[in-house]
Amino acid sequence: MRMSEGVEWAVHCCLGIAWAPDDRALPAARLAAYYSLPAPYLNKQLQALTRAGILASTPGPRGGFRLARPLHAITLMDVVCAIEGTDPAFRCTEIRLNTPEGRATVDPGVPCAVDRAMNRAELAWRRELAGQTLADIHASVHPDVIAGARTHFTD
Amino acid sequence: MRMSEGVEWAVHCCLGIAWAPDDRALPAARLAAYYSLPAPYLNKQLQALTRAGILASTPGPRGGFRLARPLHAITLMDVVCAIEGTDPAFRCTEIRLNTPEGRATVDPGVPCAVDRAMNRAELAWRRELAGQTLADIHASVHPDVIAGARTHFTD
Ligand code: FES
Ligand code: FES
């Protein structure tokens, strides 16, 4: 089970965008160059963040991506859902119904205990991610990194 | 991010094996027939459970798979790790070091705050799964299902 590396890119790009001066829109190519990432694939992640309402994109020669809401209103869960989708990692295919006794006794309206336990675990994971905002991440970043990004994105 | 369906198969097969009478060894083909699963692929999952010390396999015409330890000593985390491996779902590729200021200021010995938060969330998930044993799952199964499996695996 592996999360796509797009999640790491997406979180760091949201921070880079937040650090651009004067709320300026950043094109995918500039973010890709700044973080040494492949621009076409990064652009897909930025589009996904836009569809999820985390970024706003402006077209045109001076266009690019801005934050659609402040860092404290974006959680790691929001970013993970934007990039990875919202489907649960564990999906029960109801194999308990494949046996004769299963078909005879199981109430399909009551989820299998395995499915319930897997969902409880995923909920614990989601709750942790939902409790962490990009403002919390930002707060742990060295000021020189933030100042450097600001300068970098000024011209 | 998706868990392989082998996890669902593995958990239910451990239960089916536990329900076989007289601690008898079950070949992959019998388990596959009982749960209507493809035998060659199920056999791979059973081998993985054996490598993880959850099952013990005996070769030969009367051979097959037995539990290597009782249901209360097997957690959902054990089964997930046996099938999915133990790598974390989120893997930081250190993109914070790809910028000039990152290289200049970041202490690579201190993990990125994003990585730390992702790991905390995965720990919460693992902790839930480690708190749930197959004996807990067994306890929620209808007695007719258990009796049916026992009869099914008797001859
Ligand atoms: S039947 Fe799907 S997890 Fe049990
Ligand atoms: S550098 Fe990898 S998560 Fe931040």
TrEMBL record, chains A, B:
<dbReference type="GO" id="GO:0005829">
    <property type="term" value="C:cytosol"/>
</dbReference>
<protein>
    <submittedName>
        <fullName>Rrf2 family protein</fullName>
    </submittedName>
</protein>
<dbReference type="InterPro" id="IPR036390">
    <property type="entry name" value="WH_DNA-bd_sf"/>
</dbReference>
<dbReference type="InterPro" id="IPR000944">
    <property type="entry name" value="Tscrpt_reg_Rrf2"/>
</dbReference>
<dbReference type="GO" id="GO:0003700">
    <property type="term" value="F:DNA-binding transcription factor activity"/>
</dbReference>
<dbReference type="Pfam" id="PF02082">
    <property type="entry name" value="Rrf2"/>
</dbReference>
<dbReference type="InterPro" id="IPR036388">
    <property type="entry name" value="WH-like_DNA-bd_sf"/>
</dbReference>
<dbReference type="InterPro" id="IPR030489">
    <property type="entry name" value="TR_Rrf2-type_CS"/>
</dbReference>
